[in-house]
Structure formats: structure tokens, C-alpha cells
Amino acid sequence: MAGSNPTPYYTPTSKHTAATYHSPFLLKRPNLYSLVAVTFLCSAFYFTGLWQNRGSNSVITTSNIVHTTIPCFPSKNTSTNSPTSSKSTQKLDFTTHHSTDDGGAVTPDDSIKIYPPCDIKYSEYTPCEDPERSLKFNRNRLIYRERHCPEKNELLKCRIPAPYGYKNPFKWPISRDLAWYANVPHKELTVEKAVQNWIRYEGDRFRFPGGGTMFPNGADAYIDDIGKLINLNDGSIRTAIDTGCGVASWGAYLLSRNIIAISFAPRDSHEAQVQFALERGVPALIGVIASKRLPYPSRAFDMAHCSRCLIPWGEYDGTYLIEVDRVLRPGGFWILSGPPIRWRKYWKGWARTREDLNAEQNKIEQVAKRLCWKKFVEKDDIAIWQKPYNHVKCTEFRRRVKNPPICPAQDPDKAWYTKIETCLTPLPEVSNEQEVAGGQLEKWPKRLHAIPPRISRGTVNGVTEEDFQKDSQLWKRRVSYYKSVNNQLGQPGQYRNILDMNAFLGGFAANLVDDPVWVMNIAPAEAKVNTLGVIYERGLIGTYQSWCEAMSTYPRTYDLIHADSVFTLYENRCEMEDIMLELDRILRPEGSVIIRDDVDILIKVKRIADGLNWDSQIIDHEDGPLEREKLLFAVKSYWTAPAAQGS
């Protein structure tokens, strides 16, 4: 942790004060014997270090590390809008704490690769959901809307530009209702969904009245209607998923009720709907239910929702509802509004026949019954089903009804490019009908710090209850240290959308839960242990992701990105520069990055950060300068595409 001495504040627009090293070893009265002893010991340690590092090619220069804590201030939007704007003229002064194999010689940093701006046509580029590339794939069941990533030789090696006039988003909670037009310059939805009150264009900004196709009176009133049917206030419902989310007003208004929803929709003709959601400060991803499992573990969500999402729930042997069953917690609810619910009232407005809508609802009812769900309630425009708490009675029912079959032995949490199956995911075994399969969760907020059932039951390989408690304490200390370095992290309003690239047990996010932020926790597909189920049991959200590929999100999604040992994990798996370019794509201008890794790796990372025109410094580990693990704090510079000619 930082010492008691005051430390200089770090701002991208100011010069930095060099840290002075105060040795803990003070010799008050040197004499000949002590000088000889010190000389002998220093020489011995020096040659021992040379011998231990005789095969190393790493060089750690004095311009790479500072050993002081330095709070970060973001720069103002006064920077030039030119994509070729020069880096700040400040001179960063880093102090080394490690010996090198050349006796400490300084190597000039002349190997910086500069990454140029991309063409403005890539301003909203989503590499794995590229509309042009998607046309090459099968349109059946929306397979062409799934992830289809570029080949290695197709990867861009340039920086994605923000549109001209880009401004930092409104601060939460104002951002729930307002977004700058310059940031998402699309008016299509204001026309297409005008009657449904999704979004309105007002001069230089958009306003989100909170309406939706099935809730013209607003999402808040719609959620109140749901709350009259199931309890949304006692903490038993914390995590939710919204399929086909529009601009995510349902998820936006759930947040005030301490319920956090992941909203997803494909990148389709409803241009920028997920981008609008993210600009509002609401958790969202580009996604679609098609031929692959949703990128979430089993038993993740307390509630699933579809409001006229146009997903054919009863078709393909109920495949899509079977997938909802996989990700829904025991006792969880599935909420459906819109076609075919209340078709007797709306069939003319939906331009469909009564027979067609009645048949659709019957199919859904039959699939739900075969999944052992019970119809909880249907009132006015809303129908709700509930998943059983265990499969005791369902097992008896399955002896008579064998479609869908029980899935054979498999990993129900495996969900990265995993083929979707038309079989029922079995719940964990229980000893009686009253027991909750997989373990009873505490109500929110106790759930956040309680031992997750997956850990207490020993189903997470190599993670014990003691490990969980130690990890919780570790991240409490680390986040406190981060806030002492970057004083804006502790200030409400500076950050809203946060990404943790390697979340493990969710300790980083858990220590930010009282701040007005949300964290997308990533469980890397290459990690040895799959811990995403634990993260959801804590009442947090996240997704699977391989950082050898682009994330299913728009450019400029996140205000702050945290990466713990990510580059060590992906060493020799994929190119470091491609991961850094992806960070640059999804980080907003003036957004911040915290990267924690081995010092040799961080020096390479910093060279790339310099080539991306980030302002960055490497600082010491919270336990002091003798730790090989260091931290890189960085701020992405503000720049945009140039103004269009003639504007």
C-alpha cells in the first residue's frame, strides 16, 4: 500500500514529478569493516542475479516503472479532434526496481509501433458481428446473426475512430434518459418506433421515455405490473436476462429495484439498439439465440424476459425455450408479453389470424409443460412460468413424457461456441422435494458475500471456502489501492460501464457494488477453472469470452477496463497487439485501463499503449517494489474522426 509520504497526482495534461527512492537501510556510522561487508554482499547478490537471469533477454529500463501511487485525472474534451493529434508533451519519469542482464544499462525505447486511425467507415465496427461478413452464412434460424469473426489476416491494425463531435456520455442516472446524438448518430428508431415511445430525437441529443412495444405507458409502470404478480422487492430476484431487448428500457428501470439484467439483441435492422443501451449506461451485449448456447453458465438468472422479442419459442422442438431453461435458476421465472399472449384482444393489430396465434400459444404451453415448468400466472398482457426448484417430480413425469429427453452427462456450464441441444439439462441431485437443486441462495445483498453454493458443494475445481474468503479480502485491499492511485475511481459519475477481462470469483466487481457502476465480468474461455457460475451466484453478471477474438459489443462501450493477468494467460495463444487494439476499440475516449501483470509483460504492453497514443505509467504492486507483478494505469486520449467535408 502507499506509504505515508504525499504522492504526486497524475493527470494526462500535466508533467509528472519523479519519485525519490528512500532506502530502508540507513548506515549511521560507516566504518571500514561495514563498507567491506556491504561491498561483498552487493557483489554476491549482483553475480547471483546475473546467474539466475543468464537466459533472460528482458530489459527493464528506467523509463518504464514508477514506484509511487499516482491518482489519475481524465483530460478534458479540449483536445484536438484530429485523429492524428499528438501525444501530450509531458515527460513520464519511471523508476526501475529490477536488475537487468546488462548490469542496469538503459536501453533507448526506439521500438514503438504507431497504430494509425482507421477509416471513418469503421466507426461502429463490430468484428464478429460484421453485417457484410454475416451475409456469407446460413440465414436459417438466424445463424448468420451469430458470431462470425474475421480470419487472422483480416484483423484491422488501426484505431477505431469516434464519430466527429463525440462527447463523454451523460453521467448516471441522467444517462438512463439521455444520450448525445453525435455519439450514436442514428435516427432510424425515432421514426420506426415513434408510436411505441422507445426513443425521441431532441436537437443534439436523444431522449428515452422508457416506452416499449408492449409497455407504451413506460417500463417503470410495466415493471410495477410484473411486481404485482411476483415479488421483485425481497432480494430473491437479483439477476435477469432480457432477450430481444430493444434499447434496454426494461433493464434500465430494473436497476432502481436492485435487479441487474443483461440485455441482448442481434445487430440487425433495428440499427444500434444495443449501442443505445450501452450509451445509456445499461448492461447489454450483441447476441442472438440461434444454433449455439447463450454465453452464460447454467442456473445463472433468477428471471428471464421476452417482450415481443419475436423469438419462435414453440418451434424447432422448443429448442430456444430449452436453452432458457438451462440458464434459468431453479425456481426462476420466465416472463412473456406480446404475441401470442392475450391474442384475443390484439390479433387484428398483430395482423395475424386467431387460429395462428392460438396454435402458437398452445405450442409454448406444451413445451413449458414438458420442461416441468408450471404456469404461475397470466394476467392481462403478461404471462409468467416458473421453473421447478428441483427435478424430483420431473423425473417421474419424464418416465411418461420423453420429449425432450434428459441430456446425457455433459458440462451444463460450457457455453462458448457450444452447440445448442434439444434436451433437458438435469438439475443437481437433491435429497427431498423441498431442497433447492444446486443449493439455496441468500437474498440480495447478503448473497454477494455469502459462500456461493458451487464452492461450498465443492463443484468448482480447486476453489475452497477458504480460498473464496481470502480472495474477497485480497480484492478489498486491491480496489482500495486502485482508488488511492486513480482518485476518480472513487468519485461517482466518472465511470459507469466497467469491464473485468479476467474476473475469477468476481472480487473486483464485488468491491464496486456500492458505487454507481456496473461490471461485466469475463470468464475467459481458456481459463483452467470455469468460475462464471460462482459470479452469478454472488448476484453479479458476466459472460464467456476468448480474448483472441473481439467482444460482442460496439466500439466505445466501456469507461474503465480492468485486466488481471490477461496477457500472461494469452501469451503464445494470440498476439498481444490484437488484444490491445480490441481494448482500444471498446474503450471510450478518455476511458481508463488498469492492467495487472508480470513486469516484463507490462513493459511490452506499455510500448503498444504508447503506439495507441494512450497516456500510461507502470507503478508498483500494492505490496511494494519487490513484487514482480506491477500495474499499468492508462488513459485513452480524446480524438475523433474529422468533420465531414462540406459540413
TrEMBL record:
EC class (word): transferase
EC number: 2.1.1.-
Highest taxon above the source species: Eukaryota
Keywords: Glycoprotein, Membrane, Methyltransferase, Signal-anchor, Transferase, Transmembrane, Transmembrane helix
Xref: PANTHER family: METHYLTRANSFERASE, SAM-DEPENDENT METHYLTRANSFERASE
Protein name: Methyltransferase
Cellular component terms per the entry's GO annotation: endoplasmic reticulum membrane; endosome; trans-Golgi network
Region annotation (Disordered) ranges: 76-106
Protein's gene: LOC104247624
Family label: Belongs to the methyltransferase superfamily.
Compartments it resides in: Endoplasmic reticulum membrane; Membrane
Membrane topology annotation: Single-pass type II membrane protein
Compositionally biased intervals (Low complexity): 76-89
